[in-house]
Amino acid sequence: MDDATGNRLPGGVAVIDRPGGTIEPAHVIVLLELTLADLYSLSVALGDERELSYPGAQTGRTPTDVFAQVSRARAILTALVADAQGQPQ
Fold first, then answer.
1. For residue 5, how many C-alpha atoms fall within 13 Å in the half-sphere facing its CB?
2. How far apart are CA 75 and CA 31, in angstroms?
3. For the chain, does the N or the C end have fewer beta carbons within 10 angstroms?
């Protein structure tokens, strides 16, 4: 898949279909793992040589916490794409 600058991410980006029925926590975990893998692949393609590390288990999180973090990640990605396209933010 080409990014905003026309570069190709090695191996492409994983695309998953929204599951039918009720969204289960396992669906969210799979999506987040695929997203993490894609972001790590992107960082390696950009020259980052740091090893991927997973954060420790967290407790007491709610769906609102997850939504907030996913929203934050989407905003960061939007800014990265805008920057790569040379658009003002």
1. 10
2. 17
3. C
Alpha-carbon distance of 69 to 50, in angstroms, equals 23
> Looking at this protein, which amino acid is placed at residue 30?
V
The Cα 65–Cα 60 span in angstroms is 10
**Is the Cα torsion angle 41, 9, 30, 81 positive or negative in sign?**
positive
Alpha-carbon separation of residue 65 from 10, 47, 61 (angstroms)? 31, 31, 6
Bridge partners of 2, per DSSP, are: 8
Tens-digit pLDDT profile for the chain (89 aa)? 445 555 565 666 666 778 888 888 888 888 888 888 777 877 887 788 888 777 777 788 888 888 888 888 888 888 877 777 776 65
User: In which residue are the tokens 């997850």 written?
Assistant: 66
